[in-house]
Amino acid sequence: MNPDIIIASKPSFLAAIIIDIIFILIIVSVFAYIIVTLYKIKKTVINIEKKVEELSNR
User: Fold this and answer.
1) What's the Rg (C-alpha) of the chain?
2) DSSP code at position 29
3) Which regions span the lipid bilayer (predicted)?
């Protein structure tokens, strides 16, 4: 192995790792956003159901 080739391949290897990490972070953040949004919708629906019950009990 030529030492020059190893040095030349290092930055691209690092770039690949960084791109992978960024890609994983984007996917995780998208999933987290979807989960948080669904949780908020669920909480809102539960609150609406409680209000409907309160109004119908009057």
Assistant:
1) 25
2) H
3) 12-36
In a domain, 33, yes or no: yes
pLDDT per position as a tens digit, 1-58: 555 555 556 677 788 888 899 999 999 999 999 999 999 999 999 999 999 999 888 7
Is residue 5 assigned to a domain? no
**The dihedral sign for the CA sequence 20, 21, 25, 28:** positive
Q: What is the DSSP letter of 58?
A: -
pLDDT of residue 42: 95
41 token code pair: 């919708």
Q: What angle (nearest 5°) sits at the alpha carbon of residue 33, between those of residues 32 and 34? A: 90
